[in-house]
Design goal:
Number of helices: 4
Largest sheet: 8 strands, mixed
Shape: globular
Distance between the termini: 81 Å
Structural class: alpha+beta
Helix content: 40-55%
Radius of gyration: 31 Å
Order of helices and strands: HHEEHEEEEHEE
Length: 193
């Protein structure tokens, strides 16, 4: 009888231990899964770094391509009134230090510094080129894949600008200048940066 009790106890203990050991979860392989998680984390970090580098490159290209950046306050009668702003990229380390900026201030690859809201007036001509993004498809064809519009027709640009001006929007536009005359006004696609 004692042999039976001992055998029964051993079997019962084995069953209980086996049930407690798994607790209904899947077993995982430690080193391989840990390595795989690390690999995935590194891949995501590398993609973020590549995206951040692309953003920085785009911002620096924009900064170098134009003479001035600003918010258009008025456009009429062959004149544009501009509130000039400073378009700063992370490459501007001296300026970052002067303003007390950190990398956290550049989530989109740039920082817009508007020290004052003084405005300057610039002259438009029939040769001024207007480059903008037709977000609402008011000027592009419905099936057009590219929403970038380029025109020398100031009335089209003035029509595009109406909602911006009526709402006092602070959307930066980039200018190429020849003295006080505007060669081009460009809206860059900063939202995808």
């Amino acid at each position: 009888m004692k042999k039976r009790e001992i055998l029964f106890s051993a079997v019962l203990t084995g069953v209980l231990l086996a049930g407690c050991g798994n607790s209904g979860t899947k077993e995982t392989v430690g080193p391989a899964n840990g390595a795989q998680e690390t690999q995935i984390e590194n891949q995501i970090e590398n993609e973020d770094n590549v995206q951040n580098e692309d953003i920085k490159d785009i911002a620096e290209r924009i900064q170098k391509s134009y003479d001035i950046c600003g918010f258009i306050r008025e456009i009429d009668d062959g004149k544009v009134v501009l509130d000039a702003v400073e378009f700063i990229t992370p490459a501007d380390t001296d300026r970052m230090a002067e303003l007390g900026l950190t990398e956290a201030d550049f989530p989109n690859g740039y920082y817009i510094h508007n020290e004052d809201e003084n405005t300057d007036e610039y002259t438009l001509s029939e040769d001024t080129e207007y480059n903008f993004i037709d977000w609402n498809r008011d000027f592009a064809e419905d099936d057009a894949g590219d929403l970038k519009i380029s025109t020398k027709d100031s009335s089209i640009f003035e029509e595009y600008m109406k909602p911006y001006l009526e709402n006092g929007s602070k959307i930066p536009f980039f200018f190429e200048l020849d003295g006080n005359q505007v060669s081009s006004i460009t809206e860059e696609e900063l939202t995808s940066m």
